[in-house]
Design goal:
By secondary structure, this protein is mainly α. It is 61% helix and 8% strand. The protein has seven helices and three strands, in the order ααβααββααα. A three-stranded antiparallel β-sheet has the order 1-3-2. The radius of gyration is 31 Å and the shape is elongated.
């Protein structure tokens, strides 16, 4: 399959972003190819299109399967495995957030809970204890919020995210400080010829 300039730019950039996010470049490119192309592809087609080794494609497909970002399907009359991904960007977003939370966020929260429960934790300085407890509280709050968001359907989640700007304006409106009053302009006192200005009255330009 020959990539168009647009599809090539999409796939290449997605691979670069994958590297920035800590994901193997080929893994990200394969997912981008499946998403952009919109139909199932077998491993040979993927390898030929991206010009990467078949073994690299095989390992990358396994990684995408572990992330639950692709699924195996079959074509009538063809014994090979074909791979496809969801075309719903919101569903993909939820999958990525859920998997990253499970792999990275939740282990950190568990580690902080274990630290706080250790008897030796009480021997640390009060300031250090407070910082760790505050971090744990933040992680648990964010984790609870994320779990609630992940339970929503893609359509409901989209509505909630769209409400974010409205809620932000409402909250900021209540917290915004009142504008400072403009300084009052004082008229210059009428001067009398030959009368000296008081030393306590600042000069008026």
């Amino acid at each position: 399959m020959q990539l168009t300039p647009i599809s090539q730019q999409f796939v290449v950039h997605w691979g670069e972003m994958g590297s920035a996010w800590g994901v193997n470049r080929t893994v990200a490119q394969i997912h981008a190819l499946l998403f952009f192309h919109g139909r199932p592809l077998n491993a040979e087609e993927i390898a030929d299109t991206l010009v990467v080794a078949r073994s690299n494609v095989s390992n990358s497909l396994k990684e995408l399967m572990n992330w639950q970002l692709i699924r195996v399907t079959h074509v009538l009359g063809d014994r090979r495995d074909y791979y496809e991904t969801s075309s719903d960007v919101w569903e993909l977003f939820r999958t990525v957030v859920r998997e990253r939370k499970t792999r990275e966020f939740d282990p950190t929260t568990r580690m902080l809970r274990e630290l706080v429960r250790k008897p030796e934790f009480a021997q640390e300085s009060p300031d250090a204890q407070d910082r760790v407890r505050e971090t744990l509280h933040l992680m648990e709050s964010l984790g609870t919020w994320a779990d609630e968001m992940l339970r929503l359907s893609p359509s409901t989640l989209e509505k909630v995210l769209r409400m974010g700007a409205t809620v932000q304006k409402f909250v900021r409106g209540g917290d915004a400080p009142a504008p400072a009053p403009a300084p009052a302009l004082r008229a210059a006192p009428a001067s009398t010829p030959g009368t000296a200005q008081s030393e306590h009255t600042p000069p008026v330009p």
